[in-house]
Design brief:
Largest sheet: 9 strands, mixed
Number of helices: 11
CATH superfamily: Phosphatidylinositol (PI) phosphodiesterase
Shape: globular
Oligomer: single chain
CATH class: Alpha Beta
CATH architecture: Alpha-Beta Barrel
Number of strands: 9
Distance between the termini: 17 Å
Radius of gyration: 19 Å
Number of domains: 1
Helix content: 25-40%
Length: 291
């Protein structure tokens, strides 16, 4: 393939990444979400901390910040991927059995290292597990993908916070717990949602059926890892069919630059990575080739 042909292909692919084409779309999608930071860029900054999110947003203006939400014992919405605080802090125990005060007393930078444990530069710097409210208020322009890791009560608490800070148009919800997603949609039907296991399975069945033309999307984004793409034999043609229906296709968690280049060239709508600087460089290079 000639260099001119490569530029043409990349131009077509990148053109699919503009989300402002329809005035009827949800507010969340008026902003580019191709560059996404998994847990705020977990390989570059302490994951799911306010400091990490702020540094990531400063380094990459407009980036999509992905995070995970859980409830403390006293009902606060904190941002933490794991069920326990053990892996990322100097504490131990399940988040759901700790109060917000107990969670906030932990050092969230304690185990962060960028050199395989030789040094821990963020220890003792005052970094704490962030709350959803803290991050939304500190970064009023940021778009966030919030994975709800808990039962339906978490949806109630998270949506109340989002409404209090008037952030409905800049939050995308995901969850592996269908009842929690059902509750969120019931409370805030106009917000943006990822497909869950239930309606995601229905989507995959529909895209391969003769009734695809009549299928109505039940969510906004199909977020899937590269292993699941292979497991379900999801083809580029099927992905394009979903995008034609207005479904955004997101792949995670991609940390290898070669894989990043492949997905950017394919024309996916969003990539989540622990290494946003590497992904930003890949996207910039791809855009240069289209000029």
């Amino acid at each position: 393939m000639t260099r001119f042909a490569v530029r043409c292909v990349l131009f077509i692919c990148l053109s699919l990444l503009s989300f402002a084409e329809s005035p009827a779309q949800k507010p969340f999608f008026t902003k580019q979400i191709l560059l996404g930071a998994h847990r705020g860029g977990a390989d570059e900054w302490p994951e799911n901390t306010l400091y990490g999110f702020q540094e990531c947003a400063k380094a990459h203006p407009g980036i999509l910040l992905e995070t995970d939400a859980r409830l403390t014992a006293d009902g606060a919405v904190v941002l933490l991927h794991d069920k326990t605080v053990d892996r990322t802090t100097n504490g131990a125990g399940e988040v759901s059995k700790l109060t917000l005060e107990q969670v906030k007393a932990l050092d969230a930078g304690y185990k962060f290292t960028t050199d395989n444990g030789a040094t821990f530069a963020q220890r003792g710097k005052g970094l704490t597990i962030a709350t959803l409210k803290e991050v939304l208020e500190a970064l009023p322009e940021a778009h966030m993908l919030v994975e709800l890791k808990g039962e339906p009560a978490l949806a109630d608490a998270a949506i109340k916070i989002i409404r209090d800070v008037k952030a409905e148009g800049r939050v995308l919800f995901a969850s592996f717990v269908p009842p929690t997603m059902d509750r969120a949609r019931q409370l805030a039907p106009d917000m943006a949602y990822c497909f869950d296991m239930k309606n995601g399975t229905a989507l995959l069945m529909a895209v391969r059926s003769p009734k695809w033309a009549g299928y109505t999307p039940q969510a906004d984004v199909l977020s899937i890892d590269d292993g699941m793409i292979a497991r379900y034999n999801l083809t580029p043609d099927e992905i394009k069919k979903m995008q034609t229906k207005g479904i955004r296709f997101q792949v995670h968690t991609i940390n290898d630059p070669a894989q990043m280049k492949g997905f950017v060239a394919q024309g996916v709508d969003s990539i989540l990575t622990d290494r946003p600087t590497a992904l930003a460089n890949v996207i910039a290079e791809a855009k240069t080739l289209t000029k």
